[in-house]
Amino acid sequence: MLAVSLVAATLFVQSERPLAREPEIRGVWIPNSHSTFFDSRENVRAQMQALADAGVNVVFPVVWSKGMTLFKSDVAEVVTGIAIDPRYGERDPLAEVLFEAHRHGIEVVPWFEYGFAAGHETFPGKALEARPEWAALDAAGQPVVKNGFQWMNSLDEEVQAFITGLVIECATDYDVDGVQGDDRLPALPVEAGYDAKTVERYRREHREPPPSDCRDPEWIQWRADLLTDYLASLREDVRDLSPDLAFSMAPGAPGWSLREYLQDQATWLERGLVDALHPQLYARDAEGYVRMADEMLAVEWLDKERDRIAPGALSSFREYLIDPETALGAVAANRERRLVGEVWFYERGLIENEGAVAVALAEGPYAKRARLPWRKSANWRPPALVGAPAPAGDEVAWRVRPPADGTYRIWVEEKPAEGEPEGTDPAAPGPGWTPLGTKRLSRGRTNDLIRVPKDASDDVLRVLAIIDRRAERR
Question: What Å distances lie between residue 257 and 218, 220, 346, CA to CA?
């Protein structure tokens, strides 16, 4: 390990593509099913590079899936006995994504995919094994399993505290740029809500038990209102950490999601509870996408919220991969309808087939970089700044100049010691990279990041400075 001195520094501004005039969401979901993204550290690096080359400006990596987290979680371990999905060994997938995304200036909004689902019949989650009293119950008193998913009771305060704990822990311990819920957060199958606590609460308010018909309109709305109140509470808890954390939601189709999963999206928007909403328009051809977009905007309350609507567009699913023409057609349809962008489900569709879709986007609608609509400045998450070596007496200094004031984390990539393979430290988010701490840097001045003796300078491969927003909110 090199002995380096970290000194007050400012950064060199890298050349960038010109900035688009209008803000846009150019997002990509990253799941851990039907995808190789998380399979290795090298995959994370290479595939994030491909997304950056395509012009993507935000990724939504899954962090709560199949009853386990893809980040180190004390909250999960207390309940399930598992701190992180053992599939990844000693790795921390979220830390790897953050390092690779942020070095390209891409925001990271963790996606809590499973929400209030503890697991699936094919891979049961541990939460309900440890806390069977948390199960959602139907009118017959049986645990609710819908479409194979095993549901926790999202109206129960303990269950809500568990999910909130996961979200807040993630946003506290990692330098994320926001959080995202979906068609299971907040949600509850319409068949559920017949547990003793919920029945008693309904009885207190109505002086009678809830209807035996789970689809009774008033009973649906009463439960949906409780979930909306939970969403408001979760948003407040997230914003208490930092008002700059984006709050994104990707629920199912509006009417259907209210009828089947008690998600009252109209009220979410009316109450200002989300920064971006991503209705799932999963068509497999351009004509189908246009039809679904127009059907969505025929809903009056969605039509009024175009500046917060970035639909989910299907780019890959199992054997299906979108072609460039269909992808460009979806983007054009969104721009023509003054929607704020799109989120691709999921990354494979952009980067497979030799990256044909990524190239089409990069050469077309994503040619200019875009500020995200929830940011006032394009410099919220600037790309990593690469230090340039320069002689400094008996030392070599790596110098840079920042595009924005902020706290930056300094990273050094060194040659591995003789006989030591690259990337042997599982705690490091990048193979061979060592963090040297953070420094407050000011815009517009050129200063040193590190200095090393000349005879040791060949051991330094690269020096990066990546803005650290988490450090600023502590």
Answer: 16, 11, 21
Confidence of residue 419 (pLDDT cuts 50, 70, 90): low
What dihedral do alpha carbons 109, 114, 116, 118 form, nearest 10°?
-140
Kindly give, in sequence order, each residue whose CB lies less than 8 Å from that of residue 46, ignoring residues fewer than 6 positions away.
Answer: none
Higher pLDDT, 404 or 357: 357
Q: Which amino acid is at 201?
A: R
Rounded to whole angstroms, the Cα distance separating 16 from 35 reads: 30
Cβ atoms of 298 and 330 within 8 Å: the answer is no
Q: Is 340's pLDDT higher than 80?
A: yes
404/392 Cα distance (integer angstroms): 25
pLDDT at 428: 54
Q: Is the separation of the CB atoms in 431 and 379 below 8 Å?
A: no
The stretches of 242-382 forming alpha helices (DSSP H) are: 254-261, 265-270, 286-297, 300-303, 324-336, 348-363
pTM: 0.94
Asked if the model's pLDDT at residue 12 lies above 80, the reply is: no
Q: What percent of the chain stands above pLDDT 70? A: 93
Cβ neighbours of residue 116 closer than 8 Å, sequence gap 6 or more: 136, 151, 152, 153, 154, 159, 163, 184, 185, 186, 187, 188
Tell whether the model's pLDDT for residue 165 goes beyond 50. yes
Instruction: Say how far apart CA 402 and CA 9 lie, in whole Å.
Output: 9
* Distance separating alpha carbons of residues 307 and 213, to the nearest angstrom: 38
- d(CA 150, CA 121) in angstroms, rounded, equals 7
CB 408 within 8 A of CB 11: yes
d(CA 369, CA 57): 8
Phi, psi of 174 (to 5 degrees): -130, 150
For 115, residues 6+ apart whose C-beta sits below 8 A from its C-beta are 64, 154, 163, 181, 182, 183, 184, 185, 186, 187
pLDDT at 13 over 60: no
- Give me the residue label for tokens 């020096």: 463
- Report how far residue 2's alpha carbon sits from residue 450's, in angstroms, rounded to the nearest whole number: 11
